[in-house]
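haha ok so turns out i had the wrong file open the whole time. this is the CORRECT one, sorry everyone. sequence first:
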Amino acid sequence: DMVMQNDLVSNRKSNIGILSDSACDIPKELLEKYQIQTVPLTVSFGEEFYLDQLTIKPKQFLDKLEKSTEIPKSSQPSLMDFTNRYNYLSTHYDSIISVPLNGKFSGMINSSRRAATAVSKNIGKAIDIIDSKTATGALGLNVLRTAEAAINGMSHEDIIKNAQEWTNKTKLFISCVNTKYLISSGRISTFKALALQLFKIKPIIALEDGELKLSKISFTSKDSYKKILDLMKENYEHKKMWNYCITHVDNLEAAQYLSQEIEKISGRKPLYIEDASPMLAGKVGPKAVAVAIMEE
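then structure:
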């Protein structure tokens, strides 16, 4: 992005470069505001390959998802992609912190670490990788808190010390309306998959310590949203919230409804509402809504 590149040269806001990937689902204006760099994941339908957010946008992905007979797959950036990005950032920053997608979803974190080790050794600057253990908006919150800390002057070492605590303070709840994609993704057991199909259950999935877990069940979308709100109350009614955000798969109406209801609980609007990336959309399907929350 030429705008961000020019901004880094003329108006660098921190001495620490922040890197993530397209699965963080942070709106463009916030990426630019905090000067966060991202590497795109690759999305494929059979022999057709696309770069997430560059050559395919969420709405285009959904069109293909609903029409294609192929199950979409996402793949990580290459070792060379990370090497090039770290080399580029090292020309603008004194050190670099990368906050990628959950290591249990992708081998991307290993490629990122290999590239970081090689580049750091070559240039003599610190490059650290933080396993967010999460995805979509919850990943976005971790990235934004890291970037905010860097801009506010927190040292590289102190950010690394705090990062694990921020990760542990973040929760992600996903209302999954169409279970076909969740089942085909292989992220839940065969027994649970059969039960979801047989009883037409609309599950609420929680992402905990890098694993998707069945948190609650419902039989209607409306009840599913109510149970997400119940989870919010259970976990955050008596705790100070750093911030929250909502991502969705072509379901802005539900995202706005949850935003209004969570505002009544928390007294604040979400940091953002955003379309979910293909990485999430391909696993949880159309009309899914995800709420991510981080404690102070």
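The longest strand covers residues 211-218.
again sry for the mixup
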